[in-house]
Amino acid sequence: MKYVLVAINLPVKNLFRQFIYGLPDSMGQAGEGWRVVVPFGPQKVEGFIVRDFDREEALALLQKENPGFSIDKMKEVTAVLGTRPWFSEEMMGTAKWLAGYYMCSLAEAMRLFIPGKTSIRRKPVYQEGRLIAYEIEERLKARTVVAYTITEMGKAALAEGSRRAKAQMQALEVLLHATEPLDRKEAEAQHISGAVLQTLAEKGWALRTEKRLLRNSYDRQAERKETLQLTEEQAQAVAAIKASLDYFPAGKPAEEETDEPGAAVFGGDAGKQKTETTCEKTRPQEFLLQGITGSGKTEVYLRAADHALRQGKQVLVLVPEIALTAQIVQRFQAWFGQEVAVAHSKLSQNERGDVWYKMRTGEANVLIGVRSAVFAPFKNLGLVMVDEEQETSYKQEERPAYHAREVARYRCKNSGAVLVLGSATPSLESYFRAVSGRIGHLQLKRRPGSSFLPAVDVVDMREELAQKNYSVISRKLRRELIATVHADQQAIVLLNRRGYSTFVMCRDCGETLTCPHCAVSLVFHADEQAMRCHYCGNTYPIPETCPHCGSRRIKFFGSGTQKAEQEIGQMPGIQVLRMDQDSTATKMAHEEIIRRFSRKEANVLLGTQMVAKGHDIPDVTLVGILAADSTLNMPDFRASERGFSLLTQAAGRAGRGDKPGRVVLQTYDPENEIITLAARQDYETFAGHELAMRKELLYPPYGEILKVTVVDKEEKKAWELADEMARFLRSRYEAEHWERTEIMGPFPSGVAKVRDLYRINIVVKSQAMEQVKACLLASRYRTVKNVFFDVDPIMA
Ligand code: ADP
Ligand code: ZN
Ligand code: ZN
C-alpha cells in the first residue's frame, strides 16, 4: 500500500493542513496531481494528492504530525477521479507558487484549477465489485467523417490503367497524391463523385477510414482577412513573437530567468536603448506589445496565434471582460473556427467543464477567456496573450486574490510558453519591465492606412459656469453632437458615473484635496465629518477655503451626470442608446447594444467606462468625455494610471474608419497634467512622471504592497487583533532590518463596515516583501480566520 498526502477541496478558509491517507493497491496508479475522494469527518469529499510516499516515509511524517496515531488505523482513499492526473507538473508547480505568493492554502490555490464541482461527471467504475474510480471525463462525441485512401491494389490498378473506367482512374490519381485521407467534400472539390469513391472501395482499390473533421475549415478563408497587408510595425512585432515561438519548445520550463534586479533605477532613454539591443540579441519569452488605440494589435495576436497553432501549440487569450470583447472573439473565430473555445464568467459549471475538457484533450486549441481561464488545463500551451493587460479586472478581489497576468507569467515560464502583454496604456509595472530591458518591447506607434488619431478639444467647464451654462454638456460638445448626427455619423459619450462623488475639488483652481503623505485623493466620511486617506488612515478637517488658491468655491464633486442622458436625448435629431451596469445585467445585453449601435439604430451611445473600450465602429467620429476629472480622483495610487488609460481609450474610439475623428473632453482642471497628456496620447511622458512619483513613494514597481484586513462583528475585537498584528510587524521589521519598508495603520478600511463586519486595515509597502510575507506565514496569523491578505492589492 502507498500513502498519499491530500489537500482537501472544501471552501474552508485557512485549511492549511493536509492529511495522510492510505491508497489501496487497486488504485495504485494514482499519485501526485490526481483528484480523489476521501473520507473527511463524517463526509466524503474531494481532495487533491499533493505527494505520495511509501510506508517508511508515511510513518516518519505521521510521527511528526500526529505521534501516537497508528498507521494501520489510517483512513483510506475511497476512489480516484478520472483516469489520469488532473494536475500536470506545471499546474502543480503553479498552484504551489500561487499559494506562497498570494498567501493562501495550497487547497485554495488548487481549487482554482478545477472547473467546478457539478461538472464532474461521476460515473462510478467498479473492479471486482469494488468502487475504484469515478469517470470524470466523457469523450466528447468524436466529430469524424468517412474518408478514403488508396490501397496497394488501387495503385496496381492505376499503374495498369483502364480506358473504360476513366473517372475511377482519375480518382485513383488524386488519392495517390493526397497527403491525407480524402473525404467526400474534398473529393467533390476535385470533381470526384461519392459514387466513384464507393466503387473504388468495393473493388478494394480504396480504403474507407474515418478522419477527424476540422470543423469550420470550409468557410474560414473567406473571413480571415489574410490578404490584409501588415504595416511594417505590425510585421516586426509578429516576426519577433514568431522567433520566440520557434525558440521556446512548449512543455519545457525556460532556462533560469534573466530578470536581474539590477535595473531598479528608471533610466529614461538609457533604458530604451538597452531594450533594443537586448531584444536583438536574445529571444525574450515575454513581450509588451504597446500599440496606440486602433494600431492593429488584434491583427498581431491573430498571426502570432496562427504560428503557434501551426507548431501544434495551444493559445490562451485573456480578455478583461468577455462582453467588452465580442469583436476579438469574432475575429478569432473567423480565423480559427471551431478551434476556438470561449470561457466567460457567465458559463455554467458544466459548460465550463466542457471548455476545460476541450483544452485538456486538444479538441480545441485556442481559449479566449476572462481571468479565471488562466487556470485551464492545457495539453500543450505555447502562447498566452493578455489583452489590455493594465485592466484591474484581471485581479481577483476575493481570496485567493490572484492577478491573472502574474499567474500567466508563472505558467508561461514553467511551460516554455511565450507571453504577450498588449495595451495602448500599459500598467506601469509592465512598462517598467519593458523599458528596463527585462522583457521585449514591441511598439505600434501608428494606425494603419489613412486613419489618424483624433484631434482633442479640452473644454474648461469653469468657463461654462462663468457663461451661465449650468448644463453638464458644454456648448461646444452640444454643437459637435448636433453636427455629427446631422452628417449621418455617430458619437460616443462617456460619463464616468462610477467615480466617487465624495472628493472635494476647487471650482476655481481645479485642485482636489489629497493626502500629503500618499498622494491619493482624500475621501469624505460623513460619520466623522472629515476627509480620510484610504492608504495611511490619516484624517483631515474639511477646509473652508481652497488650500491652493484660497477660493471659497470649494465643493464636493458630485458626478451630476445622470442628467446627461435626458439632456442629450432632447437635442434635435438625436437617438441615444445607454449602456451601463444596469442596462447590461443580462447575458448578452451588452453585445446587443453594440450591435444595435453598429446598425445605426441610434446615433449616440452613452455610458460608463464600458463604452470606452474595445469597440471598433467605423462611423463613430465624435467622442465626448464628461467630467474627465472624476476618473482621476479615485482614492487609489493607480488613479492617474487608470484615468489616463480610460481617457486614452475613450478618445481612441473616434475616427477608426476612414473619416477623421474628434474628441471633446470636459474638465474643471484643464491644466491637469494627466488630462493634457491623455489628450495628446503621450503615454511616454505620462509614464516617466508617474514612475518618478512611484519611486519616491515606494509604490510598485519600486516597492510591493500588502494589505492586511482584519474583520470582526465586534469593532473592539477587530481593533485589538489589528493592533497586535501591527505591533508584531513593527517588531519584526526592527529585528530583521527589512529593506525600505513602511507599515501603516491599523486604520478603518475604505468601506469601514461590510455586511455587519468591521474592517480594519494594515498596509505594508516594502522592498523586502518576501521577508514580510515569510514572517506572516510563519506566524499564527496565517491561519486566523478573520485575517485576510491581499498581495499587490488594487486599492480604491
Ligand atoms: P487595436 O486593438 O490596436 O486598437 P485593432 O486591432 O482593433 O486595433 O485594429 C483597428 C482596425 O484597423 C481594425 O478595423 C483592423 O481591421 C484594422 N487594421 C489592422 N491592421 C491593419 C492593416 N495592416 N491594414 C489595414 N487595416 C488594418
Ligand atoms: Zn483653489
Ligand atoms: Zn495618506
General description of the model:
Residues 278-444 form the Helicase ATP-binding domain. Its cofactor is Zn(2+). The protein has 796 residues and is of the alpha/beta class. The protein has six domains: 2-138, PriA, 3(prime) DNA-binding domain (GIY-YIG endonuclease, 3-Layer(aba) Sandwich), CATH 3.40.1440; 144-212; 232-254 and 284-444, 3-Layer(aba) Sandwich (Rossmann fold); 455-499 and 559-697, Rossmann fold (3-Layer(aba) Sandwich), CATH 3.40.50; 503-557, no CATH class; 704-791, Ribosomal protein S10 (Alpha-Beta Plaits, 2-Layer Sandwich), CATH 3.30.70.600. 33% of the residues lie in helices and 23% in strands. The strands form seven sheets. The protein has a seven-stranded mixed β-sheet. Strands 13-14-12-15-16-11-17 form a seven-stranded parallel β-sheet, sandwiched between helices. A six-stranded parallel β-sheet has the order 18-28-27-19-26-25, with helices on both faces. The chain is flat, with a radius of gyration of 30 Å. The protein binds adenosine-5'-diphosphate and zinc ion (2 copies). One zinc ion is lined by residues 506, 508-509, 511, 546, 548-549, 551. One zinc ion binds next to loops.
